[in-house]
Each structure stands twice: as structure tokens, then as C-alpha cells.
Amino acid sequence: MKPILTLARKELTILFNAPATYVIGVVFLLINGWLFASPLFLVNQSSLDTFLRPLPLIFTFLVPALTMRSFSEEFKAGTIEYLATLPLEDHEIVLGKYLAALGLIGALVSFTLVYPLVLLCIGRPDMGQIVGGYVSILGLASFFAAIGLWASALTRNQVVAFIIGFFVCFIFFLLGRIAELLPGALASFVRSLSVEEHFEALARGVLDTRDLLFWASGTVFFLAACLTVVQSKKWR
To answer: How many CA atoms, within 13 angstroms, populate the side-chain half-sphere of residue 37?
Structure first.
């Protein structure tokens, strides 16, 4: 794990030194702060629902924006060749960059922990919902970060990487709505691939192994796809 963690720390340092990271982070926190606080002041009532429900849609923009440079910048600058000369396996490079992306998303999400603290001060919130909500955030972030990393490995252009990552994440977000237009068994199958379906189940505090399996299998699939792309470009 040492080479992976070393690379992850290096990537995190680069991300935290990028002005775009702070712009994206401030916009994310302002939007979520408004979603949580506006019901509190308007109707004197608030819950994590107002913060959690829009997150799958917000993450379709946020996560690809944070991961778009992961491999794109390396390929564009030619520094991927330097990484290839280091005593690092391809899978270690992918995992190192993935952990860095998760670390950055985790740092942003950690600022939202003030919301449940506010709820604990003004009332008696459901602790199961709070724990389930943050588990669902972790699952969604893990899945979308893997998609963003894969999209970044496909191209040297960061904007193109963002568009690909956003498009794929948005498709997984839309599947739940598409399922409403489909009949019977096909609707159930399409709904089972919807990130919103699995996110909302966990966010209600309902711990189901099917939801955890969805996040884990989706993450592994796209990390494996990213590794395949990196290896194919290495041998060209």
C-alpha cells in the first residue's frame, strides 16, 4: 500500500494547489448550504432530506469536474511516461489517483457534517437516517469517482474528460426515470441500475446488501475499465 498512498498524497497536494478545486468546492458548499438552511428559515423545519435528495444530480457535475485532470493532464504533459519509469504497477497508479479523488471529495463532504450537528442541537433527528445518508454519499462518491477516473484516462483533453464523465454519470442518474416508462421486468432491471434508487434506499437508513453490492461492483468495474485503458495506451 505504501506506493499507492505516496502517489495519493502527491495527487492530493496537486489538487489542493489548483485554484479550480476551490472554486468547485465553494460552489458545492454554497448550493448544499442553501438547500439545507432555506427550509430552516422559511418554514422553521429542516432535515437531511433537503440536503441528500439533490446530491445524486449535484455529484454528476461535481465528481467529473474534480477527476477530469487525473489522467488527462498526465497524458497531455507527457508525465505519464515518468510515472511508468517509477517502481509502480499500473494498478497502483490507478488506485493512487482514485484514493486522491476520494480524499478530495471526502474533504468537501466533511464540511457538511455541520448539518447533522445543527439538527442534533435543535431537535431529535433519526440517527439511522444520518448514518445511512453518509454511507450512501460514500457509495455514490466511490462509484462516480471511478467513472470520472475512467473518463479521464480516455482523452488528453480535460474538458472532453469532464463531458464523458458527466454523460455517463447522468445516464446512471436518469435510469430510474427511464424505468417508469418501461414495462414489467425490464423496468425492474433498469431501475436496479439507477444510482438514485440505491442512494435513496440507504439515505432512508435502510441498510441493504444489494445497495452496497451495487456501489462496490460498479466501482470495481469502472476501475478495471480505467486500468485497461491505461495499459492499452502504455503499449501504444
So the answer is: 8
Q: Is it the case that residue 26 has pLDDT exceeding 60?
A: yes
pLDDT the model gives residue 131: 84
pLDDT in tens, 100-117: 999 999 999 999 888 888
pLDDT of residue 45: 64
Locate all alpha helices (DSSP H) within the chain, ordered by sequence. 2-16, 19-42, 49-52, 55-67, 72-77, 80-85, 90-110, 114-122, 127-154, 158-179, 184-192, 195-203, 209-234
pTM: 0.90
> CA-CA distance, 49 to 155, in Å (whole number)?
37
Nearest by Cα to 74 from 92, 94, 49, 58: 94
Which helix (H) or strand (E) segment holds residue 181: the answer is none
Q: Which residue has the cell 455517463?
A: 168
Cβ–Cβ under 8 Å, residues 144 and 169: yes
